[in-house]
Design brief:
The structure is a single chain. With 181 residues, the protein is an alpha+beta fold. It has one domain: Sandwich (Immunoglobulin-like), CATH 2.60.40.10. 22% of the residues lie in helices and 31% in strands. β2 and β3 form a beta hairpin. α1 packs antiparallel against α2. It is elongated, with a radius of gyration of 16 Å. The two termini are 27 Å apart. It binds calcium ion (CA). Calcium ion (CA) binds next to loops.
Length: 181
C-alpha cells in the first residue's frame, strides 16, 4: 500500500480533488496489486509538469536524469515514477525510486542518494525486461508541523521514513521520458 501514500502526497497538494481521492483509494484498495497511481492523478501530474527529464537504457539499467534541482530547507528528496502500461504516456504510474523503502513493488529501487538536491540521476536496475515505458521525476518537499509544541506549524518533521511518507508532498513534477527496453 506504500504507493497509495505517494498518491496521497500528490493528491493532498490539490484540496479540490479530495473527494476524488477517497474514490480512488476505494478503487485501488479493491483491486489486486494495489500498485497504481490512478490516471486521474496522472491528469493532474500532466497539467503540473514543471521540468523535463531524460531517460535511456544503457543495456543494463535505465538511466533517468534531470537538471531541475530541489532547493531550500523544505527539500525532502526526489522520487522517480514509471508507468507499467507500455506505449501509453498517460497511463497509471508507480513509484520506482525513492530515498527510503516506501514501496515493496518488484520494480522499486531504494536509493539513498535521492536525498540530496545535487543528485540529478537515478539508475533503475529493477526495470521490466521488455516494452516501452515512460518515466517521471517528482521533487518532494516536507510539510511543516508543530514539532516544538508552540502551537505553530512552523517546524520541519524529523527526517525519518514514517514522516517522509506522511508529511511530504510533491512540489514539482516533471514531464515524461520514454524508454524502450
Ligand atoms: Ca512550532
Amino acid at each position: 500500500m506504500k504507493r497509495v501514500m505517494t498518491m496521497k502526497r500528490i493528491h493532498t497538494s490539490s484540496k479540490i480533488l479530495s473527494a476524488l481521492y477517497v474514490v480512488l483509494l476505494f478503487t485501488i484498495s479493491t483491486t489486486t496489486g494495489c500498485s497504481y497511481v490512478s490516471d486521474a492523478i496522472e491528469g493532474v501530474l500532466t497539467k503540473r509538469a514543471g521540468f523535463s527529464i531524460d531517460a535511456y537504457y544503457d543495456g543494463d539499467n535505465v538511466i533517468v536524469s534531470w537538471s531541475e534541482s530541489g532547493s531550500g530547507n523544505g527539500f525532502a528528496g526526489y522520487e522517480v515514477y514509471m508507468t507499467e502500461e507500455p506505449d501509453n504516456e498517460f497511463a497509471d504510474y508507480i513509484v520506482v525510486g525513492a530515498r527510503y523503502g516506501i514501496s515493496l513493488d518488484d520494480y522499486f529501487n531504494s536509493d539513498s542518494t535521492l536525498e540530496y538536491s545535487h543528485t540529478l540521476t537515478f539508475e533503475h536496475s529493477s526495470h521490466p525486461t521488455t516494452g516501452v515505458y515512460f518515466y517521471r521525476v517528482g521533487i518532494i518537499s516536507w510539510e511543516k508541523i508543530d514539532a516544538d509544541g508552540d502551537g505553530e506549524k512552523d517546524d520541519y518533521p524529523p527526517d525519518e521514513p514514517d514522516y517522509y511518507i506522511s508529511t511530504t508532498s510533491v512540489s514539482q513534477i516533471s514531464g515524461s521520458a520514454r524508454v524502450e527496453l
